[in-house]
């Protein structure tokens, strides 16, 4: 369903986007396309949490028995968060610095954004792949025991090793780094959202309809941000931090986590389709045969 919904959203973006949306439609299209990529990766890697007395982590139960694929999968979820911050930046510039919006149509600026997102993603991959301590005494033996429980000769993944209920300083530092990165990304999005809202309120040249439209788009973006935070980042941050508190996640939480996680790309597309009027009307006209014309309203801000 997620692939179908995001493919349908891509069609709506192509057919029903107003001309004055400009580069904004490409940002929305990037979200939809990347959600399809995440759904495919989720199906291939088949990531599952593993909780034992000695291990606390995730593993691929497919043919990809290596930590590299779990690290790549984890790193790929930094891309939507980065795109959301770019999205908030775009909305802020639309109101505060409308002349800068043209940057999003320039190849050099697009390449610059691509490099920034790639650096953040690669950094997350590195701390996932190399940050945890795998040199502690008993780690390899415990991993072989875990493999035997699943009738496998070899098993690997993203693991927090707990030796006698404690974890190494290196692993603690890595887990705190996860928290710091997520906190920086979250605060950036919140700050840009607040600045955009305040700028909409104080901008005297905006008409009533433009002000209402900008608030509606900003609200849709905020709700779109809540979807991955509720269904992806909050559960996994809790999962990461439990070892720091000496706690162990309940087994039922580990069992349902992948299913909750997989809902994110589908809900992401639904939020955009339901909250942005052009695409909502376009979907209604296709599904129920009610063709509605889209009226383009000129505004200095868009």
Summarize this, please?
This protein has 11 helices and 3 strands. The protein has 302 residues and is mainly alpha-helical.
Secondary structure topology:
Layout: H1 2-16, H2 24-45, E1 47-51, E2 55-60, H3 67-76, H4 78-96, H5 107-130, H6 139-149, E3 157-161, H7 169-202, H8 208-241, H9 251-262, H10 264-275, H11 277-288
Antiparallel strand pairs: 1-2, 2-3
Helix pairs in contact: 1-2, 1-10, 1-11, 2-3, 2-4, 2-10, 3-5, 4-5, 4-7, 4-8, 7-8, 8-10, 10-11
Transmembrane segments: 23-45, 65-88, 109-125, 180-198, 218-236, 256-276
Organism: Pristionchus entomophagus
Protein name: G protein-coupled receptor
Description:
The protein has 302 residues and is mainly α. 68% of the residues lie in helices and 5% in strands. The chain contains 11 helices and 3 strands, in the order H-H-E-E-H-H-H-H-E-H-H-H-H-H. It has helices at residues 2-16, 24-45, 67-76, 78-96, 107-130, 139-149, 169-202, 208-241, 251-262, 264-275, 277-288; strands at residues 47-51, 55-60, 157-161. The protein has a 3-stranded antiparallel sheet. The protein is elongated. It starts with a helix and ends in a 14-residue tail after the last helix.
